[in-house]
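task queued by scheduler; priority normal; single chain, no ligands, no partner chains; default sampling; output format set to structure tokens
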Amino acid sequence: MKEPPSLLIVDDSTAIRKILLRVLNQTGITLGDVFEAGDGKEALKVLEGKQISLVLSDINMPNMDGIELLRTLRAAPQWKTLPVVLITTEGGQGRVEEAAELGATSYVRKPFSADQLRDKLASLLAS
């Protein structure tokens, strides 16, 4: 039996992380462990010791933002193919295009619904 996928939620807002967790629970997708980090630097520490199936990261964060986290992950052999879904409030396409060029798997715009999140993640977590 395959282990359920584990997730890492990266956002500088504790409230947003809790909302994401609640929305994820509403999607009906079976998840394993869900880890949290407040920025890209914390995310890298979590990733060091865990088997993570997917990273769900905000773009705008202090210390290390989602773009810089993505750049770091894509440069590391062990995380080169790790699915990364970025969450953005960005109105402009610039950051989204930059993320796509760096190898982001997908992105979700805030505010999002459980259905939108389920649609984005279902295919990524099914593999």
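post-processing summary
- The domain at 10-52+68-115 is CATH 3.40.50.2300 (Rossmann fold).
- The longest strand covers residues 54-58.
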